[in-house]
Amino acid sequence: MNIENNTELTHALIVDDEPDIRELLEITLSRMGINCDSAANIKQARKFLANNNYHLCLTDLRLPDGDGIELVSHIQKEYSQTPVAVFTAHGNMDIAISAMKAGAFDFISKPVNLSSLRKLINTALSLQEAKPQQDQSPVMLGEAENIVSLRNTIAKVARSQAPVFINGESGTGKEVAARAIHYQGGRRGGPFIPVNCGAIPRELMESEFFGHKKGSFTGAHADKIGLFQAAEGGTLFLDEVADLPLDMQVKLLRAIQEKAIRPIGSEHEISVDIRILSATHKNLNQEITLEKFRSDLFYRINVIQIDTPPLREHKEDIPLLTQYFINKFSKNIDVKPPNLSGHALSSLMSYSFPGNVRELENILERAFTLCDENIIQLEDLQLPHEVKDLTLRNHNTLEDVESLDDYLEDIERDIIIKTLEKARWNKTAAAKLLGLSFRSFRYRI
Q: Which residues fall within 8 angstroms of residue 231, CB to CB, at 6 or more apart?
C-alpha cells in the first residue's frame, strides 16, 4: 500500500514525551499524506484512542506516566485492528522483543532512520487492504478444533512483524503455515523466500545468506545477492533452522538484531527490511541443552511460537484432506476424480501416519496413478503392514504367527520405513539414527 497514492485520509497517533521527536514524526508522516495526533504520555494517548479511529500508532516505550508496553497491551486488547510500532534505544533488543510479545506490530531503533520508518509505515498500513486471494494464501485444511485454532493464530500473527517460530513434526505443514502468515500480512506484496537450512553446504552458507562481492574468494567471479537481500520487503522462511552450524547461528543472530548484513568481501553493512519466520521438527530446547543451538538465537526467533499438530491428532480431517488431494491430482491432468473405496478409507483412518499430511499426499498420489476403473482400492494405497495386516499388532501368542522370520522381517521393515520417513528418505541420516553403518543399512534395505 503506497500511502502517497492513498486517497482515503489516513490517521496516526504519535506517543512520545520529547517535543522534538513528535515534531519530526509529524512532519515525516504529513509528507506521506497522513493526518497525525500527538500525545506526550499514556493518559493523553488513551484519551485520543477512545475518541478516534487510528490506522497506526507509533509510541515510545519510556513515558512519564508508565511503561509503553502497557499502552501496547491496551491497544492490542481494545483496538486490535490498529497496528502499533514502538521506538527503542539502539541495541535494546530485549525490550523490543517484550513489546512484540505484548502485541506490537514492529519496532524501530532511535535515532530514527526516516527511510526505515517510511517502510514500516507502508507495511503497517497495507494491513488495511483487502484479504489476499485464496490461491496466494494457502489454507490449513481441516475442521478439527486444533486446526481451526491454528488458522485463527495464523491470522493474528500475520498482522505483526514479530519473528515467528513454527514447531511441528515433519510433514505437518510448517511451510504452508509460513506462507499463510506471509500472504495474509502486510508484506504479501513482497517476496516469500523459503530456504532449507540443512540443504546448504556449510562452506557456502555465509555466501548464500549474505551474498558476496566479486573477487572476495576463489570462484567469486561476480557479485552475488544473498537470501536476505532477495527477501527485501518480504519474508525469509528458515526451514529446519536447527541444522545451522553454531558459527552461522552467531552471524544470523547479529543480522536479525541489527536488521543489516555484510556481504563477504564488502566493507559496509546493508540494511535489510525482512520478516523472519523459522521452523524445525527438532526439539530446540533439547538442542540448546546439548549445546547444538544457541539460546540467544532461539530467544530472538521465538518471539511468537505456533505449533502445527500431527495428523494423528486430527484424524477426523482425513476424508476432507483425501478428497482435496484426489481433486488436485485429477485437475493437474484434467481427468475425472476417482472414488475411494470404503475399505481404503477405513484403512487410512486406522493408519498412524508418521509422515503426517505429506505422507498422506504421497500415498494418495501413488494410489491415484495405480488405481483401475476409477476406484482407489486398499491395495492401491500400498500402506505399511501396520494397516494392511493389523493381526501383526494383535498377536497374543506365537501360535498365530505362521513364520517367526516373516514376523520379525515385517517389524524390521516397518522400523526402516519409519526411520527413512523421519530422515526425509536420506539413507545416510537414517542409518545414523539406527546406529548402523551405511553399508549394513543398505544391505537391510
A: 190, 191, 192, 193, 272, 274
What value does the mean pLDDT of the chain take? 87
The CATH number, out of the four listed (3.40.640.10, 3.40.50.1370, 3.30.70.1140, 3.40.50.300), of the domain defined by the range 145-309 = 3.40.50.300
Count of Cβ atoms closer than 10 Å to residue 343 Cβ: 12
Q: Whose CA is closest to 41, among 14, 81, 20, 79?
A: 14
Are 245 and 205 in contact by the 8 Å Cβ rule? The answer is yes
Q: Dig out the grid coordinates for 417 from the structure.
A: 520405513
User: CA-CA distance, 185 to 173, in Å (whole number)?
Assistant: 18
Count the Cβ atoms, other than its own, within 10 Å of residue 239.
Answer: 20
What is the grid cell recorded at 284? 530446540
Fold of 3-128: Rossmann fold (3.40.50)
Angle (CA) 439-443-445 rounded to 5° is 120
> What is the rounded CA–CA span in Å between residue 85 and residue 82?
10
- Is there a cis peptide before residue 111, judged by omega within 30 degrees of 0? yes
Q: Lowest mean pLDDT: which of 68-82, 156-170, 233-247, 379-393? A: 379-393
212: left (phi over 0), alpha (psi -120 to 50) or beta: beta
- CATH of segment(s) 402-445: 1.10.10
209: left (phi over 0), alpha (psi -120 to 50) or beta: alpha
Residue 300 has pLDDT above 50, yes or no: yes
Which residue do the cell numbers 527413512 mark? 420
**Beta pairing partners, 10:** 34
From residue 197, alpha-carbon distances to 32, 175, 208 in Å are 39, 13, 10
Only one residue has cell 511441528, namely 168
The per-residue pLDDT for 205 is 94
Cβ neighbours for 394, distance < 8 A, ≥ 6 positions apart: none
Strands 62-63 and 66-67, bridge-based pairing: antiparallel
Q: Residue 347's closest CA among 307, 320, 315, 373?
A: 315
Q: Is this model's pTM higher than 0.85 or not?
A: no
Q: Which residues contact 170 (CB under 8 A, 6 or more apart)?
A: 281, 355, 356, 358, 421, 422, 424
* Nearest-angstrom CA–CA distance, 416 and 395: 21
